Amino acid sequence: MNLESQKVTVNKPAKYIFDALSDVKNFEKLMPENTAKFEVTGEESFIFALKGMPEIKLKMKEKQAPNKLVLGAASDKLPFTLKANIDEKAADSCDIQLFFEGEFNAMMAMMVKGPISKFIETLANNMHKL
Hints:
Elements: E1 2-4, E2 8-10, H1 14-22, H2 27-30, E3 35-42, E4 45-50, E5 56-64, E6 68-73, E7 80-90, E8 93-102, H3 106-125
Antiparallel strand pairs: 1-8, 2-8, 3-4, 4-5, 5-6, 6-7, 7-8
C-alpha cells in the first residue's frame, strides 16, 4: 500500500527542516491532536499511539541531507516506511512531501488506509510548527 501527502511549502530552509526532522523528539510537534502517547526511546527512535490504535515504534532508517529522511517500523509484524522528501525552493523555503509504503494484506490495508492517510496529511500540514 502506497500513500502520499500533498506537498506542503514551509518558509524555512531545507537544511533547517532536515535537521529538525533528524531529531526524533521534534515529531511530537507534528503529531495529531488525538495522540494518546509519544515517547522517545532512543536517539533515532520513538513510540507513538493514536487514540484507539495500537502503539507503533518508528526508527530512523536513512538520512540523505538535506533532501530525504526515511523512518521505518521497528517491528517486522507491520513492515512499513515513512519517507520525507524535502525540495529546496529558495534559500528560505522548501517543499515537503511524505510517502507511506507498507506491506499489508487486503483486509488490513482496507482498515488502515483512511487513518494512515489522515495521519500523514496531519504530519505534513504541521511542518510549519518545526
